Amino acid sequence: MAWERLPGRGCGALHRCLLGAALLLGLRLCTELRRAGAQPPARSGLPGPAPRPPEPPLPPAPAQRRGASRRQVTYVRSGRRAPPGGGGSGTQEPGCCPPRGRPRRKGPRWHIDLQPWAGPARSLDEEALRFLRYISTIQIACDHVSTDSLATDSSPSKKPWSVCLDDRFGLGHQIRNKQCRLYSLGLGSDDTHFEVSMANDGCEVHRFDPTVKSAHVLESERFWYHRLSVDWRDSHPAVAARKPYSNTRKLRTILNEFGHHKIDVLKADLESAEWKVLENLILEDVLEQIGQLIFEIHLHWPGFEVSGSDSSVVRFWYSLLKELELQDFRLFHSYKDLSKPQLFLKKDIFNASSCYTLSWVNTRWK
């Protein structure tokens, strides 16, 4: 009978059929997977993870990503390295550039702009005549001039140091409120009547004199002496280390060390160093911190570290004074010292004196 055949023969055939069907199904599945890897699957295809396209290369490491050099600029400007992902919400460290909203301070200049020659001949007479006319012409009228010892005093040691006390320039108000500050630059032989008078009126007076014995001396309630010489350059660091209170410093350096942001009056009698000091004040933009200037200028020789032909020297002097005008300083008082030799660069020309005292007011001073 059929049902008495050897066991397992029918089952083996069934197993072989199932195995063949599975093999065919596996081959078809492999074929479909290869097709899916060669092109993006359609939206109606079988669900599954989308394969990665082979064309684009792997993205580089963050340190080598394109644009890293641009982010380096951010590091230079802000003083803080940008994170690899770009941006960052941390607090910005101080860097080379001021934050937005503040006016950017001008950097130091290397030289002043010389004015055109006074005439085609470029002669001393042309330059001297223009210069002497300029320092003798008042540029702004001051209704209340406080003049210390004019020519009515027979003492030759006293100078006509003058300040403008008009309310529009604020110095009178500062003196009344005892908020005035005066810097005086000079040598020990100079008379200090003007400084004492300003201190008694309510000004905080700082006298810089390299001949005093102590580093800082409080002469009276509001009158200080400092053993410092104001120059157009700072002393060498090695010299400053040996003698920290007996060296030369620029005015900007002293202002920073003293923590002073403004000087209401700057008086200077520097015995022919005034031209280089004035040049330094212009080049380093210190003038905007000064309300009034009182300078004694000396014309009998070019001055320290000023060289060239006589006509070029006078052109340099004139250019310095024009720089003051360009920065809104106006001459309100000029005094010709007739007690000094009548010499102009060692020449007797145009009845010029070898010494003048000039006073300017900063018309933008608040």
Report on the architecture of this protein.
There is one protein chain. This protein has 366 residues and is α/β, with parallel strands linked by helices. 30% of the residues lie in helices and 17% in strands. The protein is built from nine helices and twelve strands. The strands form three sheets. It has an eight-stranded mixed β-sheet with strand order 5-6-4-3-9-10-12-11, with helices on both faces. A hairpin with a 2-residue loop joins strand 5 and strand 6. Helix 3 packs parallel to helix 9 and helix 8 packs across helix 9. The longest helix has 30 residues. The N terminus is likely disordered.
State the gist of this model.
The chain has about 375 residues and is α/β, with parallel strands linked by helices. The protein has helices at about 10-40, 70-80, 125-135, 170-175, 195-200, 235-240, 250-260, 275-285, 310-325, and strands at about 145-150, 160-165, 180-185, 205-210, 215-220, 225, 230, 250, 265-270, 290-300, 330-335, 355-360.
| Terminal Cα span | 129 Å
In percent, how much strand structure appears in the residues? 15-25%
The biggest beta sheet reads:
8 strands, mixed
Shape: elongated
Secondary structure tally, helices: 9
Estimate percent helicity: 25-40%
- The whole-number mean of residue pLDDT values reads 78
Please identify the structural class as seen in this structure.
Answer: alpha/beta
Order of helices and strands: HHHEEHEHEEEEHEHEHEHEE
Count of DSSP E strands? 12
Strand order of the largest sheet: 5-6-4-3-9-10-12-11
Our Rg estimate from Cα atoms comes to 41 Å
- Give start-end ranges of low-pLDDT stretches: 1-6, 40-51, 58-105, 149-157
